[in-house]
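My current task is to audit a protein record that another person submitted. Thanks in advance; the entry in question is below:
***
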Amino acid sequence: MLNDIQGKDFINLRDLTPGQFRYLIDLSAELKAEKLAGVDQRRYHGKSIVAHFEWGSTRTRCSFESA
């Protein structure tokens, strides 16, 4: 499933298929469990997997931090 979404930008959750959405939820659970277990997570160092914005002012700040 990773190759299906890798390198693509999604503006809205409706742009994802149910399988892609499930993959991201599963990935987030896996990463959170690894972090809590103290597993080295450098495979995503310097990468943004998902950026979720609820307020407009957060979008600009997070965009600059990600860049």
Observations:
- The two ends are 25 Å apart (CA to CA).
- The mean pLDDT is 78.
